[in-house]
Hints:
Layout lengths: L1 E6 L8 H5 L13 E7 L2 E5 L5 H5 L6 H7 L9 H7 L7 E5 L5 H4 L9 E5 H9 L19 E5 L4 E3 L2 E5 L8 E5 L8 E7 L2 E5 L19 H10 L3 H13 L6 E4 L4 H8 L6
Parallel strand pairs: 3-4, 4-5, 5-6, 11-12
Antiparallel strand pairs: 1-2, 2-3, 7-8, 8-9, 9-10, 10-11
Amino acid sequence: MRVHHLNAGSMTPLSAYLVNGQGSLFKRARLVCHILLIELRDGLMLVDTGLGLNDIAHKSALPSAFLKSAAPRLDPSETAIEQIRALRLAPDDVHHIVMTHLDLDHAGGLADFPKARVHLHRSEYQAAITGEIPAKPGRYRKHQWQHAPRWTLYDCFDDVWLGLPSARVNIGGEPDVRLVPLSGHTPGHSGVVVKTERGWLLHAGDSYYFRGQIMTPPQRTPLALEFFKRMADTDRGMRIISERRVRELRTVADLTIFCSHDPVEFERFSTASPTE
């Protein structure tokens, strides 16, 4: 098994000091969309998809507020599908996509892999797809799943992973992949756990944004990032609990934790060889 850490959507909001916590007040910041590409014995699996080719070709379908505030580069070469091709792998071999949640910067690439089975917390499906759970207006972009993905939904979290409830993701064999509910950012927001030969990986999604949030004691989140975090929360109390749960896992041996958007975390992995 090989694990590739990919950035599937650079964003350049103002300012580096207020977003990244370092650099000039007037220089553009850098955020990433950190996803995983995993080479399995019989195909490929993605954890989140970042922005997709359709988002770039039809950027008017994206909220103007997102385009102005996040200032995404919308570079086709950063999409998951083009990076898979650059690795000389076949996009049609992506059989499974495991989602932390369905915010537009995580789900945009779904349409690039129409044959894949998409694994998701049922509450996220009810918020984004059916409307059974109320969501903030305009939060989800339904054009990103107009191709009618093959959804596999999870609502029974009766397994236990490192003391947290989890559900084993059915990918038909190895590796051990799990959804761990980390709600608050969205109703069905989840961490995705993958067992590798070197230990566990936890993609914590948007349960935190800045690496200092899960340090002990926590570091102050840069001001603009803190503002965005509060604006994006569905349930602030639950998101704080989820953040604390992730922080408590930092002392676990053989566990590597990272979030979706911290560029410093991403560079630790992107400059290294793929995980075997």
